[in-house]
Structure formats: structure tokens, C-alpha cells
Design a protein that fits this description.
Layout: E1 6-8, E2 22-26, H1 31-43, E3 49-52, E4 64-65, E5 68-70, H2 78-95, E6 101-106, E7 109-111, H3 115-122, E8 129-131, E9 141-147, E10 150-155, E11 164-168, H4 169-176, E12 180-181, E13 198-202, E14 206-208, H5 231-249, H6 251-259
Parallel strand pairs: 2-3, 2-6, 5-12, 8-13
Antiparallel strand pairs: 1-3, 4-5, 6-11, 7-14, 8-11, 9-10, 10-13
Helix pairs in contact: 2-4, 5-6
């Protein structure tokens, strides 16, 4: 398969040397979304490149990509697979590149006014993935630092969502070393096999624009297996993740996360 194309954004007038590589994943014909992202990132003074998502409504998704198998059973729709592959291709590009860190956006990301300052501060932390957007359903987290009014946290399970995040090159290499694409792009960050040090913010400083309609069709996948039917695998994954948290973040962080199970939600 030929590599996905990358189109460069109009010049923003900012100093390119002041920023790490920044990629915005977008379908080539998503004109409205691209105009909005160009305006948003120019307003933040952040140079970027569009990454042309290769799989949209007019192009079927193959059984494998670059020798890596694509397993359909864990995905609900074709659009979920297409989005995941786009992130994977960007990860592969980062893994094979020269930069130590890159910033990845989806094309419906809305940035806080102080995002550029937050980004510079976030780069000084020790992480594999630093998430600026998401929906965390775990409700268990430990604050390890602060960036101005934001908390920097470790969670019992990484949030869902991948509209804005930093990724280290070594983490990208680990992700791309897996032999199959078998989970949605935001779930990969919690995969115990990868031992990724994932940091998040409270509150998140990026959210998704719900006003711009998606061009992807949510075609259902008949072979999809809901998570509730994979309960044993989820139990094993949960146990492995606890071990991973202890190794990556330390026993103290794991203990604090586990103690939160005993506390009423109103006290958290």
C-alpha cells in the first residue's frame, strides 16, 4: 500500500523551530473541518500538517496493512477501523521519524485559549502519552502535578478519546510492534503489553467540536463482539494493567488508585 499523503497547512507566521511536529488527521475532502482547524491552530500560533486519512466512505478497508492484520471483531463500525488505522499510520510515521515527540489532533479538536502554554509545560513531563482530550469513565485518578489551574493525573484506565495527545517516538514504536490492530485507537494507550506511561489533564484543555458533522458512515460490522461477552479477557486485562501501573508509576500510585474503590464518589 502506498503511504498516505500529507498536505502542509498554510503558513501561520509562527517559528516552526519552536514546536514539535504536529499532525491533524483529516479526510482529504473534509473542507469545513480543515478550515476550522487551520483557523484554530493559527490562532494558537502552532504550525502543523494535515495527515490525509486514507480510508473514508469511498475506500474499503483491507484485511491487513503493512503486514499487520486488522481484526474486525472488536470494532463496532467500519468508521472505527478507519479512524484507528489513520492514528496507527501516524504512529508509524512518528516511530520511523527523527523527532522524539509529536502532537496529534483529530480534525474536530477545539483548543483552550491557553493551549500553547500548556503544551510547552506538558513537554517537560516524563510520559509516553500525554492526553489533552477525552472522556474518563474510570472515576479513579491520582494527581501527580499541576499546570496552572489544571491537574496532571494518572488514571486507573486511560480516558476514551484521541482528539489531542502527545506521543513519544519510543511509545509509537511499541504500538506499531504489535502484530495486529485489534482495538480502537484510544484503547491502545491502556494496553498492558505496551507499558505506556499515560498522563492526563483535569479538566481537559481540548474538546471535540460537536457542530461539524462527520463524513464517515457508521456501517456496522456483523462480527462485532461486545465487551460484555469478553468478560474473562477484561478481567485478565484489568489485572495486568494493575501490574503495569505499579511498574510504570510506582506502588504508591497503584495503592492510591485502589483505595479509591473504598471511597464514596462524593468524597473523590
Amino acid at each position: 500500500m502506498p503511504p498516505a499523503s500529507i498536505s502542509v497547512s498554510p503558513a501561520s507566521g509562527a517559528d516552526d523551530q519552536a514546536f514539535i511536529p504536529v499532525y491533524v488527521i483529516s479526510l482529504p475532502d473534509a473542507e469545513v473541518r480543515r478550515r476550522k482547524m487551520t483557523s484554530r491552530l493559527a490562532g494558537a500560533g502552532i504550525p502543523f500538517k494535515f495527515f490525509d486519512a486514507p480510508y473514508g466512505p469511498k475506500r474499503p478497508i483491507p484485511a491487513e496493512i503493512d503486514g499487520v492484520a486488522i481484526l474486525r471483531e472488536p470494532f463496532r463500525t467500519e468508521s472505527e477501523i478507519g479512524c484507528t488505522i489513520s492514528h496507527w499510520l501516524v504512529h508509524k510515521m512518528i516511530a520511523e521519524g527523527d523527532g522524539d515527540t509529536a502532537l496529534i489532533f483529530e480534525d474536530d479538536a477545539v483548543l483552550s485559549q491557553d493551549f500553547a502554554q500548556i503544551l510547552r509545560r506538558a513537554l517537560s513531563f516524563d510520559f509516553d502519552v500525554f492526553k489533552f482530550e477525552g472522556v474518563n469513565v474510570s472515576n479513579r485518578r491520582v494527581t501527580i502535578a499541576r499546570i496552572d489551574s489544571y491537574e496532571v493525573t494518572v488514571t486507573s484506565s486511560p480516558s476514551m478519546g484521541a482528539a489531542a495527545y502527545l506521543l513519544r517516538r519510543e511509545a509509537a514504536r511499541r504500538i506499531c510492534s504489535l502484530k495486529a490492530i485489534d482495538q480502537i485507537n484510544d484503547a491502545i494507550f491502556g494496553d498492558p503489553r505496551l507499558r505506556l506511561r499515560v498522563l492526563e489533564m483535569v479538566p481537559f484543555c481540548v474538546h471535540q467540536d460537536g457542530e461539524t458533522p462527520s463524513q464517515l458512515r457508521a456501517l456496522p460490522i456483523p462480527s462485532y463482539v461486545p465487551q460484555r461477552q469478553r468478560s474473562f479477557r477484561r478481567l485478565v486485562q484489568s489485572f495486568k494493567r494493575k501490574i503495569m501501573i505499579a511498574r510504570v508509576h510506582g506502588l504508591g500510585v497503584l495503592a492510591r488508585l485502589e483505595l479509591q474503590r473504598l471511597r464514596p464518589m462524593k468524597d473523590r
